[in-house]
Amino acid sequence: MMTFILDFDHTISLNDIITQILDETGIHEWRDIENRADLGELTLRECLQWELDHINITKSEYIKFIENNLRIDYGAKELFEWIKNNDYPVYIVSDGLKEVIIYALNEIGANETPIFAHQLLWDGEKKIGIKMANDNCEHNCANCKISRVNTIKEKHPDNELIYIGDGFTDIQAAPLADIIFARNNYSLSKYLIKEGIVHHTYNTLLEIKERLEND
Ligand SMILES: [Mg+2]
Ligand SMILES: [Zn+2]
Questions:
Q1: φ and ψ at 55, to 5 degrees?
Q2: By C-alpha distance, which of 149, 146, 157, 144 is closest to 5?
Q3: Beta strand 200-202 with 115-123: parallel, antiparallel or unpaired?
Q4: Of these four, 33, 122, 131, 147, which has the most CB atoms within 10 Å of its CB?
Q5: How far is residue 116 CA from its own chain's centroid?
Q6: How far apart are CA 173 and CA 94, in angstroms?
Q7: What is the pLDDT of residues 130-153, one digit of tens each?
Q8: Cα(188) to centroid of ligand 1, in Å?
Q9: Number of CB atoms found within 10 A of residue 172's CB
Q10: How much distance in Å is there from the Cα of 38 to the middle of ligand 1?
Q11: Closest by alpha carbon to 13, among 72, 60, 54?
């Protein structure tokens, strides 16, 4: 048996809705904030919290924005169907937003997948706050993927763990898995190459399904 853990942004989705909303609403400073996080001047948690705090739209604008802008990897549907047909446990662990993930999962018919992600809080149409996926951890993650991976591993101790991701927030969590798939030419794969950590790269999620079903 296998257990799957997938990141969401740039893994299942091809674009990042949070920064797109910020750009769309005239908040371009997120680039400076992300640069400062890259330089270690801000933690990843502080960076994401800043971004979520600066989202300033109504709930219906938000939903419409997701519907109009979210692009999903064309292999996502087939990968999830195959996972489901084999009864493999699958989880999404993301530094994105729950509503965006739910929308994508509905599109690909995988809406029963458990999601660990952040949330915007609403009172009717008005955004009244944010809810981070967990409290601060020792590594200052926004969503602590390291502890999620460990908890999921404990839940399915005999399964081979497959981690699928792309980015900075996957760097520490992915090597805890048995098999890593990293989106080709993104920061996770660049990091793993630099550190000499064995992994597969993918350009579409379909390649992952094809590789695993032929193993
Ligand atoms: Mg990502
Ligand atoms: Zn952490």
A1: -75, 120
A2: 149
A3: unpaired
A4: 33
A5: 9
A6: 12
A7: 999 999 999 999 999 999 999 999
A8: 9
A9: 15
A10: 15
A11: 72
Q: What is the per-residue pLDDT for 214? A: 82
Q: Please tell me the number of the ligand nearest to residue 176's CA.
A: 2
Ranges of the chain with pLDDT below 50 = none
Which runs of consecutive H residues, i.e. helices, occur in 14-124?
A: 17-24, 30-38, 44-53, 59-69, 76-85, 98-107
Ligand nearest to the CA of 136: 2
Question: CA-CA distance, 23 to 38, in Å (whole number)?
Answer: 19
What pLDDT is attached to residue 57?
A: 96
2-14+72-213 fold: Rossmann fold (3.40.50)
- The domain spans of the chain are 2-14+72-213
Give the span between the Cα atoms of 154 and 145, in whole angstroms. 14
Q: pTM of the entire structure?
A: 0.96
Q: What's the CA-to-centroid distance between 48 and ligand 2, angstroms?
A: 14
* Nearest partner of 128 among 42, 55, 23, 208, judged by Cα: 55
Please give the backbone phi and psi of residue 183, each rounded to the nearest 5 degrees, phi first.
-60, 130
Q: Which ligand is nearest to the CA of 167?
A: 1
Percentage of the chain beyond pLDDT 90 is 98
**Ligand approaching nearest to the C-alpha of 43:** 2
Q: Give CA–CA dist 107/101, Å, rounded.
A: 10
Per the CB < 8 A criterion, the answer to whether 114 and 155 are in contact is: no
Residue 14 has φ and ψ, to the nearest 5°, of -105, -10
